[in-house]
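=== Discrete structure encoding ===
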Amino acid sequence: MPEVKSAYKVPVSLAKGLPDHEIGLGGNSWQMRPMPIKQIGFFLGGSIVVAWCATSTFIADSGAKFIALFVLWSVVFVLYMGQLTKTEELRITTVPPLLAYLPKSARRVFTRRDSNPSGFYSIVGIESIDKDGRIYYSDGGQGQVYLVVGSASYLLFDEDRVGILKRNDDFWKKVETTCEHVFITTKEPQRIYHQVANLERRNRALEVRDPDLIELQNEQYDILTQHVGGKFASIHQYLLLKGKSEDALRRGHTILRAEVENSDLMIKEATMLDREETQPMLRVFYSGIDDQLNPTVT
């Protein structure tokens, strides 16, 4: 039986540069937690600005008490804004987005047919979807949505569980950073396309148009469309591939297709959706969520 890892971690982002490099501070007798260069630079720059303001501006002539209060407040501000967020970014980088969000006009987006679509694009980021389901984003990227079926189950044997984890680990090692993989899980009415199509084929194959048979088929059709396909919800999982370019999306599709063809441990089935199937799935996020539609994104 192959061995499974006892712990997993999120790899370090390849987007990190020299400012993100951590430096250990302290001597032999004491040691501080390593700090990134950008944080050290922010603290040094903030200290210089505070010292300059307290000695070379009008604040220097405002009295000892006011100077002490200004220095105390400034030091607290610099220390607070210089802390790191969960994504290892300086807290001060969150201030510009906050200021951009504060105006009421920035929090209201009009979606009338005659409204300027720029505000909606800034939220959705989607410019168009072609007939084959290819999504074109406003940042130049392209995407494609797949309906996927996995292999997870509470009834897995230990050997199968280890194999699935190993296969997932191998898959994510092959994935390129230029193509995002977004898993979307929704609870929506069951798909009845195949059942309805089969019922239609049966209807066309009838040689004797008996009224009782026609009524029976109509009853079956009503049950499928009104009850099974309308009231009974089931879990559906989608995979959105979003490449930075057309070539990045093509490579992402190639890796995904190879995974589905070579093994069913991670993904058993992956069906590419066209525009008519992609739009209802995406509409869940922008037209409201009711009791039967509860999407989650990972």
